[in-house]
Amino acid sequence: MNHLVLALSLSLFASPVFAQEAKPVETMKDCPMHDQHAAHHATVEKNGDQAMGFPHDKTTHHFRMSSDGGAIEVTANDSNDKMDLGAIRSHLSHIVTMFNNGDFSTPMFIHDGVPPGVTTMKLMKSAIRYTYEEMPSGGRIQVKSDDPIGVASIHDFLRFQITDHQTGDSLEVAQNKFIEQLTGQLAH
User: Fold this and answer.
1) Are 22 and 163 in contact (CB under 8 A)?
2) Is pLDDT of 30 > 70?
3) pTM, entire model
4) 121 with 154: CB under 8 angstroms?
5) CA separation (Å) from 36 to 33, 46, 49, 65, 73?
6) In whole angstroms, what is the distance from residue 173 CA to residue 165 CA?
7) Segment holding 63, helix H or strand E
8) How does pLDDT run across 134-179, given as a tens digit for each residue?
9) What is the distance between the alpha carbons of residues 63 and 44, in angstroms, rounded to a whole number?
10) Among 186, 188, 181, 160, which Cα is nearest to 67's?
11) DSSP 86-150
12) pLDDT score of 36
C-alpha cells in the first residue's frame, strides 16, 4: 500500500519530467505566436544582462540535469576575457547564497515571472543543496537533493531555463536517469 501511495504521489510531481523538449529555434518561425516568443526572449536576454552583470552574447549558459538534481554552468566565450570571467564567478557565487536562503528574485526578474519549480524549491529549502565551483572559463552551481520531490522541482526549474534561454541542452539522458531513480526508490 505504501508503495502505491508513493508511486501515485511521485507521478503527480514527476509528470513534467515527461514534457517534450523545446522545439529548435528554426521551427518556431512557423508558430503563430513567434513574434510574442521573440519579444519575450529579448526581454529575458535584456533582464539577464542587467541582473547577471555580464552580456549574454559574450557568455554561454548550460543547464545540466542529473539523477540527484543538476547544474547551472556559465562560461566566458573568450577565455582571456577577465572582466566577464570575474563577473560570471561573482554572480554565480552570489546566486548560491541567495538560493540557499530561498531567494529566487533574480530568476524571477530575468524571466518576468515565477519559473516552474521555484515555489517547491523554496518550500524544500532545507532538502536542496546549492554549491558553487569554479570552472576554467567560468563557474558552475551544483543543485542537489536526496528527496524525489526536491529533484523533480529542480528538474522543472532547469527544464524551464533550457527552454527560456534557448540553450538547446538535451533532456533525454536526465529523463532516463530520473526514471531510474524513481523506479529504484519504488522497489525498496
Assistant:
1) yes
2) no
3) 0.69
4) yes
5) 5, 15, 20, 28, 27
6) 19
7) strand 59-66
8) 999 999 999 999 999 999 999 999 998 888 767 787 665 445 555 5
9) 16
10) 181
11) HHHHHHHHHHHHHHHTT--HHHHHHHTS--TTHHHHHHTGGGEEEEEEEETTEEEEEEEESSHHH
12) 52
C-alpha cell belonging to residue 21 = 523538449
CA distances from 137 to 10, 21, 82, 125, 168 (A): 38, 28, 9, 29, 20
Cell of 97: 547564497
Contacts 24+ apart (CB under 8 A), 77-84: 79/136, 79/137, 84/54, 84/55, 84/58, 84/59
- Hey, what's the cell of 127? 532538502
Buried b (16+ CB within 10 A) or exposed e, 17-51: beeeebeeeeeeeeeeeeeeeeeeeeebbebbbee
Angle at 141 between CA 42 and CA 72, to 5 degrees: 35
